[in-house]
Amino acid sequence: MHHSRAIMRTLFGALAVLFAIWSLVVSVVSAAPFSQDVEPTQGASESAQEETPINLSIGDDTCLECHGQPGLTMELENGEVLDLFVPPQEHAGSVHGEKGYACVQCHTTVGDYPHTKFSALDQRDVTLQLNAVCQRCHPGEFELTQDSAHATAFNAGNHEAAVCSDCHTAHDVRRLTNPDTGELTPDARLWIPQTCARCHSAIYNKYLDSVHGATLIGTENTDVPTCIDCHGVHNIEDPTTAAFRLNSPQICANCHTNPEIMDKYGVSTNVLNTYVADFHGTSVVLFEPETPDAEINKPVCFDCHGVHEIAWVDDPIKGLHVRQNLLTRCQVCHPDATDNFPDAWLSHYIPSPDNNALVYYVDLFYKILIPVVIGGMAVLVSMDAGRTLLDRYRSRKVKEQVELVEDVKQPLPDQSKSGAEESEVEHE
Amino acid sequence: MSLEMNQDTRLESNGVRLERTYQRFMLGQRWEHALLILSVTVLLLTGLPQKYRAAMWSQQILATPERLDLIRQIHHIAAIVLIIEVVYHLFHNLYLLFGRRLPEDIFPTWQDVRDAWQMFKYLLFLTKEKPAAGKYNFEQKFTYWFIFLILGMMGLTGLIIWFPLVVTNFLPGGIVPAAKLTHSTEAIVTAIFIIIWHFYHVHIERLNLSIFTGRLSEQEMRKYHAAEYAHLTVEVRDTTEEESGRDAS
Fold first, then answer.
1. B59 to chain A: nearest residue by CA?
2. pTM for the full model?
3. Looking at the structure, do residues A164 and A49 belong to the same domain, yes or no?
4. ipTM
5. Is there a single domain that holds both residue A251 and residue A324?
6. Does A53 lie in the same domain as A94?
7. Whole-angstrom Cα distance, residue A40 to residue A30?
8. Could you tell me which residues come within 8 angstroms of residue B111 by beta carbon, excluding any fewer than 6 positions away?
9. What's A74's DSSP letter?
């Protein structure tokens, strides 16, 4: 372990040196002046710098001399007042602070003292200006966010749409994943709904009362999905598209077909295959391969179970195990549905003598009937074909003999007679 | 095509081909059969992609919701055609039967059981005699009644899954998924039955086109409907001595 670390360190070091030489060569060749404001801690050298802190021109202490003082503010162009105070422990306690990143690594325009004057239209402009720096170290995540519903909204002119620091904060950036496994920590799972709730509070309130939200927040059970388990993390898809809707059963299936999670709570893992086998799911999954963005009026999981307000199945008001609630759900799409109608839906049960017995016995009947019909017919037909062929072969032989005899008896054989004789022989 | 050669062509010495044929199906019956072929083919072609929706070929056919709707509409139209045909067939034939204008040949009798048993023995080489059939042999009766039952089931279950809201007004809901399963499975039984049993008997065993031409030759009558042939020729003998004399030669 220590060995491999040392090797890695050497490798990264070598890479960093190579990169430095390469950039020097490139800049000399292109005869461009070596830019002073481009930091030496960039790109490929990031990892190397983690291990071997580079001497920075300005340390955090320098910044905090001013920005560590409460009450430091500035006026923005629109008159808003920007608080410039950064509590020292906020950055120090963050994942960046823990790793020794300095203020000026993100605030790249302020390498000298006194630093160049910062100006922004308004508070949001401040965030947007400073947010651009995240991609220097996190290009992959940044790239993903460009495909998200947030980016789409932003590009459409909604500058309130979330950018990196809206979710991760600016200075108090918390560690969310376990560094060894790369998986979300249980704490992070608890934070996620609160993070999204900063903007999506109405949805958060619905989620709080749902089987998932109440379990997560009430019992700190992290087996249940948080926002990102369904919506994704950085490339959060627009959930109002036809494609999202058509694919949504797969989202639920990620957990609901996983026995490792479901068995703990006695929840069936047959929800997807029974859905696909029944009326609604049949149509929904049909178009996925050819037209994944097909508009469908058939229900997906969330049409019956709810989106964020998914209730316990035995919830007296919303639970679908309660017959009246199920009928009410049916009537949303089938307004004329009567009391018997909900039974037309197999309720995610695989037919058995206890559940949907009629379907079970019909299935059993055909499981016996079909082999008997195919087998019986195949046997009878092949026996018949065999016997027919044999008879034909025999009658041809007899016919040859008869013709031979008749040739001797009569020089001109009567065709009709030989035909009649032949059929007599056949029926012998 | 057929295992047996057509042996009914007899050349008279003057070279003129003479063929005595017997009416087997009336024109209306032949049209009914044509309608049956058409509607069942369309129903199978539009139904099977819906049944095998997990298969690639099916998903290519039913690629969009619009296509699925179109195919379902075609299926429903063909179903209406078939239902009308079956209802017409039922009432028309009951009318003819009660008016004594249609012989009761198609109804199963104990003779059919005996014939089936003899055929079975014949196939096992226990006897050399094939049963002498009437107008419809037991296999043809079986085909008719099997298709009759299947069409009844398909029509009934098809209507149930077409109008589940109406049906659940007065029947338990469980009948709907059961009907769906029956409809989908019975369709396969139908396809298998038509291909293995019916096609064998009318195309492979011998080429029997009487449902299209309406007539059977004397040779075919003698060979495959001996009892019916005897019955007919006796009647002929009773009325016209001369004719029967010629037949016997």
1. A286
2. 0.73
3. yes
4. 0.79
5. yes
6. yes
7. 19
8. B134
9. E
Tokens of A256: 């609901």
**Contact indicator for B134, B227 with CB cutoff of 8 Å:** yes
Give the one of A282, A359, A387 whose C-beta lies nearest to B181's C-beta: A359
Short-list A169, A37, A170, A41, CA closest to A115: A37
A344/B176 Cα distance (integer angstroms): 5
Q: Are residues A290 and A326 in the same domain?
A: yes
Give how far B97 is from chain A: nearest CA, Å.
Answer: 31
| pLDDT tens-digit profile, chain B (249 residues) | 344 444 444 455 566 767 788 888 888 889 999 999 999 999 999 999 988 888 888 888 888 888 989 999 999 999 999 999 999 999 999 999 998 888 888 898 898 889 888 888 888 888 888 888 778 888 889 989 999 999 999 999 999 999 999 999 999 999 999 999 999 999 988 898 898 889 988 888 888 888 888 888 888 888 888 888 888 877 665 555 444 444 443
Best B196, B221, B246 member to test A by mutation, with max A CBs in 10 Å, is: B196
Contact list in B for residue A419 (CB cut-off 8 A) is: 7, 10, 219
Is A163 in the same domain as A276? no
Which residues in chain B are closer than 8 Å to A281, comparing Cβ atoms? none
| Peptide bond before residue A114 is cis, with ω within 30 degrees of 0 | yes
Residues A327 and A370 reside in one and the same domain: no
* Residues in A touching B64 (Cβ below 8 Å): 287, 290-291, 294
Distance, in Å, from the CA atom of B126 to the CA atom of B138, rounded to the nearest integer, reads 19
Q: What are chain B's domains? A: 22-233 (1.20.950.20)
Please tell me the distance from the alpha carbon of residue A214 to that of residue A221, in angstroms, as a whole number: 9
Q: CA-to-CA distance for A353 and A29, rounded, in angstroms? A: 82
- A350, A374, A392 - which closes a domain: A350
Do A130 and A165 reside in the same domain of the chain?
Answer: yes
With beta carbons less than 8 A apart as the criterion, state whether A286 and B68 touch. yes
Q: Residues of A numbered 255-314 whose beta carbons fall under 8 angstroms of chain B's beta carbons: which are they? A: 278-279, 282-283, 285-287, 289-291, 294-296
Nearest CA in chain A to B203: A385
- Quick one: A49 and A92 in the same domain? yes
Structural domain contains residue A403: yes
Q: Domains in chain A: how many in total?
A: 3
Q: Within a domain: residue A271?
A: yes
The contacts of residue A250 (CB under 8 Å, 6+ apart) are none
Amino acid identity of A277?
Answer: A
Is the residue at A231 inside a domain?
no
CB A142 within 8 A of CB A136: no
Count of C-beta atoms within a 10 Å radius of residue A330: 22
Q: Which residue of B has its CA nearest to A424?
A: B223
Tell me the residue range of the domain where A398 lies. Answer: 357-407
Show residues of chain A in contact with B53, CB under 8 Å: 282, 285-286
CB nearest B165 (choices: A336, A366, A388): A336
* Closest-CA distance of chain A to residue B33, Å: 23
Residues of chain A with C-beta less than 8 angstroms from the C-beta of B6: none
> Does some domain include residue A91?
yes
**Listed residues A175, A204, A231: the one ending a domain:** A175
Give the chain B residue nearest A412 (alpha carbons): B13
Contacts of A334 in chain B (CB under 8 A): 165
